[in-house]
Amino acid sequence: MAPPRKAPEDGKVDFHASFVPLSAPVCFVNNRTVCYAVADNVCLWNIEDGSRSYLHTTVYGITKLCCNAERGMVAFCEGGASPQVFVYSMEPKKLMFTISDVAELELADMAFSRCGSRLYVLSRATSKKLAVFSMQTGLRLKGCDLDLPLRFDKLSVYPGHKDHLALIRGSSVRIVTITKSFETYISRLQPPSIPADAELSVSAYAWTTSGHFLVATRQGSLCTLDGGTGVLLHVCQAERPITSITMTRSHLVTSHIGNNLSFWSYSPEALPAVTDEAVQEISGLSDAPAMSSAANGGVFKLNKVLDLESVSQSQRLGHRMLGQVACVQLNPGFSQAVLTTAEGEVWSLELPPKLNQEGGAFPTLDPTDDEEEEEDIYMRADQLQTQLLTWFHTHPVADIAILSNGSELKACASGDEGGRLRIWEASRGMDPKGFRMIRFASAITSLAPDAEGNMLLVGTDSGCVHLVRASPWRKAQIMDTQRVSEAGVAKLCCCATEDGLKVAALLFDNRIAFCRVNLSDGRVKMLGYVEALGNVEDIQFHDQGVAEGLFPEKLLVVGTAQEVTMLWAVRAPPTDHEPRSADLDRDVCPVWSTKLSGEKRLEDKPTAVCSLTKKSVVVGFAGGGVKSYPVPTFSGASTARQSAAMPQNSFVSVPCGQPVSCLRASTQGSALSLAFASMDGSVTQVSAMQGSEGELITRKALHSPYIGGASQ
């Protein structure tokens, strides 16, 4: 049974900016247009003029995507069990085929043939098989289904002949050949030729124009396989491990650890024939000759070296390339190179004409002038035209924040589980980089900006609270760091005071830590802990309806205590409080409570809270419900003498059945609205006027429910 569908309009929104992981290599749908998935939409991005258009789909999530530049086609696989593959043409935009029965759970990879007449599909869960589909009829080619003995992760089709392809996994490579027979095809998985006892970890691979398949390992070996039989023809050793391989019109290009790009002349005629005895002598990878030496048999000859580290050092700090180059590729017209780094940056690079000549030959430099060759082997920075195209997080994004003073959007901030904090322009401006990055030693868990967008608080899973000066965002820097607990920080929130900020941090052990930020000296001071009220799910300051000149005093808390769902209000310690012990007693931080439900049902568990008006708050539930309640007035955290409170209003007539992950109330003039996100991937906005029944303003399905939906 195929996964459920939605109307394309349900995911149609106006994207102001999108920074999502691009595949490596990136997918070109034509010579200048890159295609990638944005939530459950397909984005077509012209990298020359920066324009973007979107294909709004009917699926709830996209797991795999591939393109064909010859015919302008895009194929993508949906998430969920028994997924289907959808094939679209881009000019005009229309659905060509819907392909079923490709996998029980998950596809490993997809690829078109270069001519666009075939689509190859590799599944890895639960069955391990290769299937081939005709792009003339959309039907499976007879005889091409191939059951595989191992789980393979990638496939690579030989651009010169669609009947040859390679299957790659972390420790092995196998060649597949397809032969036309009477009214059917015969597919064959060629035997492995790399020694089984070799310590092999594949780091890069590529086809050559002569039909050979190159495989690089993390140990520094470069193996050349025959593209028809899979026989190992040649092995050499690179000076540094290779991270990526590609071909220009005339040269082989390799990227290496240390960010070196090497351009090689490649002579396939120097390789031994498949039947030669020289092939049989290759028994191991450890004693292979150096790639740049004459001992490799003349197969590879180094022509040019580009040190990207020196190029980066010549740039200003904010404009430098970050991270090791993980992938090098050329656009379909071979006119421009695209580099993807391990830090999620995508750069364009103009190739010198001498290294990208027409004709497919592999010329070498004039050997009669060794001095000139040695002098010119290193390329200069001024010979290149590098430009940052886009960037993305390389780890799951933990939180995002908008840096705004209420009327002007300054920038946005996002933090990931790899400890990277990026502060970036919401729309691309004159800055060629467009973002700044700060690294932390542990995973970022929460972000909390001040009301003016000048300061940003960053919480990590090591229990630290970092204060970042975010204005101007191009010169963002860490002002102070305070480790508030050995337990990690789960959620941060802050509110303004007369001379700074009041900060509340929900910890992994369910305690709540209060801090004070003095903006005059940029320091974070610890005030103390409120002992665990129960199993806390969310916190938020009660900042709606506060009179002008006053500041929020109460912190809203939702969770469960002794299997009873609860809403608490905790008075924050005064700004002049001087801590004498680690714990804040009830005289300093009094607590009020409200029992939300008397029944022990999972769907009634509170998951999110926010302030709505001066006298009411909104609570989101695990079942998708969103309801408003009075601010707690019952003194104490105990629930023994309380009855369940009646909600003032319900903003969802039919709950989605998935937990509400985030709540935000906003005011525009006299209109009060409420926005909330759920783990089904939907983002909903409703009217929240007093006495209103929660009239729906908009509802969009944006994120995949198969990977957690919308979290912020």
From TrEMBL:
GO terms for cellular component: axoneme. Residues 60-227 form the Cfap43 N-terminal domain. Its main location: cytoplasm. Coiled coil: none annotated. InterPro entries: Cfap43_N (IPR056296), WD40/YVTN_repeat-like_dom_sf (IPR015943), WD40_repeat_dom_sf (IPR036322), WD40_rpt (IPR001680). SMART domains: WD40. It is found in: Cytoplasm, Cytoskeleton, Cilium axoneme. Transmembrane segments: none annotated. The keyword Repeat applies. Pfam families: CFAP43_N. It comes from the Eukaryota. One of its GO terms (biological process) is cilium assembly. Keywords: Cell projection, Coiled coil, Cytoplasm, Cytoskeleton, Repeat, WD repeat. Belongs to the CFAP43 family. This is Cilia- and flagella-associated protein 43.
